[in-house]
Amino acid sequence: xxxxxxxxxxxxxxxxxxxxxxxxxxxxxxxxxxxxxxxxxxxxxxxxxxxxxxxxxxxxxxxxxxxxxxxxxxxxxxxxxxxxxxxxxxxxxxxxxxxxxxxxxxxxxxxxxxxxxxxxxx
Length: 122
Fold this sequence. Notes:
- The structure is a single chain.
- The chain is of the alpha+beta class.
- It has a single domain, classed as 2-Layer Sandwich (Nucleotidyltransferase, domain 5).
- The chain has helices spanning 2-19, 73-89, 107-117; strands at 30-35, 40-46, 51-57, 96-98.
- Strands 3-2-1-4 form a four-stranded mixed beta sheet.
- α2 runs parallel beside α3.
- It is globular.
- It starts with a helix and ends in a 5-residue tail after the last helix.
Protein backbone atom coordinates (compact mmCIF):
# COMPACT_ATOMS: atom_id res chain seq x y z
CA UNK A 1 0.00 0.00 0.00
CA UNK A 2 2.90 2.33 0.72
CA UNK A 3 4.15 1.94 -2.85
CA UNK A 4 0.81 3.02 -4.34
CA UNK A 5 0.60 5.97 -1.95
CA UNK A 6 4.14 7.04 -2.87
CA UNK A 7 3.38 6.85 -6.59
CA UNK A 8 0.24 8.94 -6.12
CA UNK A 9 2.15 11.51 -4.07
CA UNK A 10 4.88 11.79 -6.73
CA UNK A 11 2.29 12.12 -9.49
CA UNK A 12 0.52 14.92 -7.61
CA UNK A 13 3.82 16.75 -7.11
CA UNK A 14 4.55 16.58 -10.85
CA UNK A 15 1.04 17.80 -11.70
CA UNK A 16 1.24 20.76 -9.32
CA UNK A 17 4.72 21.65 -10.59
CA UNK A 18 3.37 21.89 -14.15
CA UNK A 19 0.12 23.63 -13.20
CA UNK A 20 1.70 26.42 -11.15
CA UNK A 21 3.14 27.86 -14.37
CA UNK A 22 -0.02 27.55 -16.49
CA UNK A 23 -3.29 29.41 -16.39
CA UNK A 24 -5.93 29.30 -19.10
CA UNK A 25 -7.49 32.62 -20.07
CA UNK A 26 -10.29 33.47 -22.47
CA UNK A 27 -7.75 34.49 -25.15
CA UNK A 28 -5.46 31.49 -24.55
CA UNK A 29 -7.23 28.60 -22.78
CA UNK A 30 -5.47 25.54 -21.39
CA UNK A 31 -5.35 22.25 -23.33
CA UNK A 32 -5.22 19.59 -20.64
CA UNK A 33 -4.47 15.92 -21.24
CA UNK A 34 -5.25 12.85 -19.16
CA UNK A 35 -4.31 9.35 -20.18
CA UNK A 36 -5.18 6.01 -18.71
CA UNK A 37 -4.23 2.59 -19.96
CA UNK A 38 -7.36 2.27 -22.11
CA UNK A 39 -8.23 5.86 -23.03
CA UNK A 40 -6.90 9.36 -23.57
CA UNK A 41 -8.85 12.53 -22.84
CA UNK A 42 -8.26 16.14 -23.91
CA UNK A 43 -10.09 19.27 -22.77
CA UNK A 44 -9.70 22.93 -23.56
CA UNK A 45 -10.47 24.86 -20.39
CA UNK A 46 -10.93 28.57 -19.73
CA UNK A 47 -9.82 28.93 -16.10
CA UNK A 48 -11.08 32.49 -15.64
CA UNK A 49 -14.71 31.55 -16.28
CA UNK A 50 -14.29 27.92 -15.19
CA UNK A 51 -15.80 26.33 -18.28
CA UNK A 52 -14.75 23.72 -20.81
CA UNK A 53 -14.60 25.16 -24.32
CA UNK A 54 -14.03 21.89 -26.21
CA UNK A 55 -13.25 18.27 -25.39
CA UNK A 56 -12.58 14.95 -27.06
CA UNK A 57 -11.74 11.48 -25.80
CA UNK A 58 -11.42 7.92 -26.98
CA UNK A 59 -14.51 7.12 -24.90
CA UNK A 60 -16.69 9.28 -27.20
CA UNK A 61 -19.02 7.11 -29.24
CA UNK A 62 -18.67 9.37 -32.28
CA UNK A 63 -14.87 9.00 -32.33
CA UNK A 64 -14.57 5.37 -31.25
CA UNK A 65 -15.01 4.04 -34.81
CA UNK A 66 -11.80 5.70 -36.07
CA UNK A 67 -9.48 3.44 -34.05
CA UNK A 68 -9.62 -0.01 -32.54
CA UNK A 69 -8.05 0.55 -29.13
CA UNK A 70 -8.03 3.86 -27.28
CA UNK A 71 -4.70 3.42 -25.52
CA UNK A 72 -2.26 3.80 -28.41
CA UNK A 73 -0.61 6.54 -30.47
CA UNK A 74 -3.04 6.38 -33.40
CA UNK A 75 -5.95 6.99 -31.04
CA UNK A 76 -4.06 9.89 -29.43
CA UNK A 77 -3.45 11.44 -32.85
CA UNK A 78 -7.16 11.15 -33.70
CA UNK A 79 -8.10 12.82 -30.41
CA UNK A 80 -5.60 15.63 -31.00
CA UNK A 81 -7.07 16.30 -34.41
CA UNK A 82 -10.65 16.15 -33.09
CA UNK A 83 -10.04 18.51 -30.16
CA UNK A 84 -8.29 20.99 -32.47
CA UNK A 85 -11.23 20.97 -34.89
CA UNK A 86 -13.74 21.43 -32.05
CA UNK A 87 -11.67 24.26 -30.58
CA UNK A 88 -11.51 26.08 -33.90
CA UNK A 89 -15.27 25.69 -34.23
CA UNK A 90 -15.56 27.37 -30.82
CA UNK A 91 -13.25 30.19 -31.94
CA UNK A 92 -10.06 29.14 -30.15
CA UNK A 93 -6.81 29.32 -32.10
CA UNK A 94 -4.13 29.53 -29.37
CA UNK A 95 -3.82 27.35 -26.28
CA UNK A 96 -1.28 26.59 -23.59
CA UNK A 97 -0.48 22.89 -23.24
CA UNK A 98 -0.97 21.22 -19.86
CA UNK A 99 0.58 17.76 -19.84
CA UNK A 100 -0.43 17.18 -16.24
CA UNK A 101 1.72 14.60 -14.47
CA UNK A 102 2.66 12.86 -17.71
CA UNK A 103 5.93 13.18 -19.59
CA UNK A 104 5.84 14.86 -23.00
CA UNK A 105 6.46 11.53 -24.67
CA UNK A 106 4.55 8.86 -26.57
CA UNK A 107 0.79 9.34 -26.60
CA UNK A 108 0.89 12.80 -25.01
CA UNK A 109 3.38 14.06 -27.61
CA UNK A 110 1.37 12.42 -30.43
CA UNK A 111 -1.78 14.22 -29.28
CA UNK A 112 0.05 17.55 -29.12
CA UNK A 113 1.64 17.11 -32.56
CA UNK A 114 -1.70 16.18 -34.13
CA UNK A 115 -3.38 19.22 -32.55
CA UNK A 116 -0.63 21.47 -33.91
CA UNK A 117 -0.97 19.92 -37.38
CA UNK A 118 -4.74 20.52 -37.26
CA UNK A 119 -4.23 24.24 -36.64
CA UNK A 120 -3.89 24.92 -32.92
CA UNK A 121 -0.99 27.13 -31.85
CA UNK A 122 0.94 26.49 -28.63
